[in-house]
Design brief:
Blueprint (H helix, E strand, L loop, with lengths): L1 H30 L6 E2 L19 H11 L8 E7 L2 E7 L5 E5 L5 E2 L3 H12 L5 E7 L13 E6 L6 E4 L6 E4 L1 H13 L2 H7 L2 H26 L8
Antiparallel strand pairs: 1-9, 2-3, 3-4, 4-5, 6-7, 7-8, 8-9
Helix pairs in contact: 1-4, 1-6, 5-6
C-alpha cells in the first residue's frame, strides 16, 4: 500500500511541480508593466473640460434622431455621453449591441469609419507610414484579450510588431506591442482561458481549475502520509 502511495505521490508531484513553475512564471510576466494604456486625442481647451450645460438635445431626441438615421434601430440598450475631440456625443448602443454616436448639440449622426480610426491613430502616435491593415475586431483574442468591442485593429509599415486598437465609441486608441502579446498569452495560460476559447464553455474552464486543485490536494495528502514513520509488523 505504501509503495502505491509513494508512486502516486511521485508522479502527481512531477505534474504539480511543472505546473507550479509555469503558473508562477506566467504570474510574474502578468505583473510586469507591459500593458498599453488607452490614449485620446487632446484638443486644447476642449477635451477634458466638457460643458454639458450647453447640450441642447435630450436623450429622447437623440434616440429619435438615430431612429430617423437608422430605420432598423428599435431599442436603446444604453445611452451615455462621450467627448470626442471636444464634441459632446450621445453614445447609444442598439438592440444588436452596435454603437452609434449622435452630436448632443446639432443632432448630427457621427459616422465612425475605418478612415476616422486611422486618422486618430496617426495623430496620437505621429505615424506617417502607409497602412497595412485596418479591420474591425468583434471578438477577444491573444492580441486583444479584454476591453470594449467592437474595435478597429490597425497595423502600419515599419511597425510590424505593433497593433493599434481604436474604439468607435470614444475614439480612444490602445497600442499593443509584442510584449503585450506575450503578457496576454501568459494571462490566458494563468487563468485557463484557452479551455474556454476552445470549448466555448466557462463551466469547463472552472472544472479544469477544480481538477488541478484536486491533484494538488491528492499530492499533499499522500505527502503527509509518507512523512509518518513506517509501522513495523509485530509477529
Amino acid at each position: 500500500m505504501r509503495k502505491i502511495i509513494r508512486k502516486t505521490h511521485k508522479w502527481v508531484f512531477i505534474f504539480v511541480g511543472i505546473f507550479s513553475l509555469l503558473w508562477v512564471a506566467t504570474g510574474v510576466i502578468m505583473s510586469l508593466p507591459v500593458h498599453g494604456d488607452w490614449k485620446k486625442l487632446t484638443v486644447q481647451n476642449k477635451t477634458g473640460s466638457e460643458d454639458y450645460s450647453s447640450v441642447t438635445m435630450s436623450p429622447a431626441e437623440a434616440v429619435a434622431r438615430l431612429k430617423k438615421e437608422k430605420p432598423s434601430f428599435s431599442l436603446a440598450r444604453s445611452i451615455h455621453f462621450e467627448n470626442i475631440q471636444g464634441r459632446i456625443m450621445y453614445a447609444i448602443t442598439d438592440q444588436d449591441k452596435k454603437n452609434h454616436l449622435i452630436d448632443a448639440h446639432t443632432g448630427e449622426y457621427y459616422a465612425f469609419s475605418a478612415n476616422v480610426a486611422e486618422s486618430y491613430a496617426r495623430k496620437i502616435y505621429g505615424i506617417k507610414e502607409p497602412i497595412l491593415e485596418n479591420v474591425v475586431i468583434n471578438n477577444h483574442g491573444v492580441g486583444y484579450l479584454w476591453g470594449e468591442l467592437p474595435v478597429y485593429r490597425l497595423q502600419f509599415e515599419g511597425h510590424a510588431s505593433e497593433e493599434y486598437y481604436v474604439s468607435p465609441v470614444n475614439a480612444r486608441v490602445l497600442k499593443h506591442t509584442i510584449y503585450t502579446k506575450i503578457s496576454n498569452i501568459s494571462s490566458m495560460l494563468h487563468t485557463f482561458t484557452p479551455i474556454q476559447i476552445l470549448t466555448g464553455s466557462d463551466l469547463l474552464r472552472w472544472i479544469s481549475v477544480l481538477f488541478v486543485g484536486l491533484i494538488f490536494l491528492v499530492g499533499t495528502i499522500t505527502g503527509i502520509y509518507l512523512t509518518f514513520p513506517k509501522r513495523k509488523n509485530r509477529w
